[in-house]
Design brief:
single chain; 263 residues; alpha+beta; five-stranded mixed barrel
Length: 263
């Protein structure tokens, strides 16, 4: 029988990062990022909260990280894969080689989120089919409210961070939502708004140079044409308050060839 872990004890572990959500503004931790990855044994782990402002070293998809954690309060998060990361304990390490990635993840891919739920998982990799992406511009009021929340966090964190009293630069939210329609291996249709960090990051990186329309078309081509041809999976995760609701938290290429310059 597996040993039951204490919720007050501090543990450490090593995972390879597969998904990073876009930073969320919060009063306690500033902008926080929810990440997900797997251990060397192929067991899923969810890392939260990862303070975006306080990271001494950044880390990327396919990178191993080591960190200390406690188990979350079950009244707030009952998902077995969740880990409450202890601030300032994250140590970035090396990356998985490109020609080893598909083989490493193959054993944890499941046919559907329905199958993942039956296995008691709150994180899963699923191969999508018939992928179409709808790019929807956010309402002006929605974007303004989102911008103001990030601005307020920047002001609040200026009192706590070592920045000589200067207001922290606010994170710029993406003005578009990226909505994916797809079917799983069991033929069931899904519709998910992407929570993946890389799509809005790509928009912000490319649009000043190539313009909005060309950047959006590049994003559409990447996920509707390029990725399906090369091979890819969706990283799916359940909502902490709604365990039957699955979110699209990562879009992951698994080919072993040189990756596109988009990312």
């Amino acid at each position: 029988m597996a040993k039951k872990l204490s919720r007050t004890e501090i543990f450490s572990e090593e995972v390879v990062i597969l998904a990073k959500a876009f930073p969320l503004p919060g009063a306690l931790h500033g902008e926080t990022v929810c990440c997900a990855g797997v251990t060397r044994e192929g067991e899923w782990r969810r890392q939260y909260p990862v303070p975006f402002r306080r990271l001494k070293d950044s880390f990327e998809r396919w990178q191993w990280i080591e960190y200390k954690y406690k188990l979350p309060d079950p009244s707030k998060d009952k998902r077995p894969e969740s880990r409450r990361v202890q601030e300032d304990t994250i140590i970035p390490k090396g990356k998985i080689k490109k020609n080893e990635r598909a083989r490493f993840l193959e054993k944890i891919i499941v046919p559907s989120t329905r199958c993942a739920s039956e296995l008691g998982l709150s994180l899963a990799l699923v191969r999508p089919h018939n992928v179409k992406i709808k790019i929807q511009e956010k309402e002006k009021t929605e974007l303004e409210e989102e911008t103001e929340r990030y601005r307020n966090v920047g002001r609040q964190r200026s009192f706590f961070d070592d920045n000589d009293g200067r207001e922290l630069r606010a994170i710029k939210p993406c003005p578009y939502k990226f909505i994916f329609s797809w079917t799983d291996q069991e033929g069931k249709s899904h519709r998910n708004v992407s929570e993946d960090w890389e799509i809005p990051a790509t928009f912000h990186n490319l649009s000043p140079t190539y313009g909005v329309e060309a950047t959006l078309e590049k994003i559409r081509f990447t996920y509707e044409e390029e990725y399906p041809q090369k091979g890819f999976v969706f990283a799916m995760g359940t909502h902490s308050s709604y365990p039957d609701t699955w979110l699209l938290i990562g879009i992951i290429r698994l080919d072993e060839t040189e990756q596109s310059s988009l990312f």
